Amino acid sequence: MNTKKVVFLFFSTMFLGAMGGAIIGALLYDPLFAEGGFWNFIFGVLWLLGIGAAVSATAQMGYFAYLLLNRLALSLFKTKKLWNRVQIFLIAFVFFDLFYFRYLAYATGDETMGGYLITPTLLLIYAALVAYFKQRETHRGAFIPAFFFMYVITTIEWLPALLVTEINDSVWLWIYLTPLLVANTYQLMAHHRIQENA
To answer: Where does the source fall among the domains of life (predicted)?
Structure first.
């Protein structure tokens, strides 16, 4: 992949992530637009675009970090089969952590653990779907690495939002998660296409 393709991937990912964050923010975050008025709306959209762009930049760092991690792990574990098993274990571990520790940290007396299972399960299903399409477009061995990247790496990138107690608000969590999902999905699905056209 040449420099031109890397630059294209960088800016297109940032643009799509920013748009994803702005759209979901405009739909969900009412306080930003509560005062009304044209300039308040413009400011709100620009602010959300900035947040989305910043979050998508984090997603890009996570993607290239995973590419490096994958190469190092393949040399460390010697066989792809063993590394795939480790990735499956880590997916299960992160799934458990994502609902259980958030339940311990934020649940009130009348809340059940079931409510904290919804988002991790939806994210797991989404990651599996993206990995399935990645596998269809490339090869059978791409499923587990793509699944791992979309679930585990996205969750790690999402961690700063999850750890801030003040924003344990589903709206803010989605404002942070949406650009990550958009950017990570785009990077994963665009990478092999860009390489094929290089």
So the answer is: Bacteria
CA dihedral 181, 189, 72, 69 (to 10 degrees): -10
Cα separation, 144 vs 148, in Å, equals: 6
More confident residue, 77 or 126: 126
Query: What is the residue extent of each domain of the chain?
Result: 59-197
* Range picked from 16-30, 107-121, 139-153 for highest mean pLDDT: 139-153
d(CA 183, CA 15): 9
Query: Could you give the CA distance from residue 92 to residue 98 in angstroms, rounded to a whole number?
Result: 10
| Span of 39-43, 134-138, 157-161, 185-189 with lowest mean pLDDT | 39-43
> How many angstroms separate the CA atoms of 146 and 66, rounded?
10
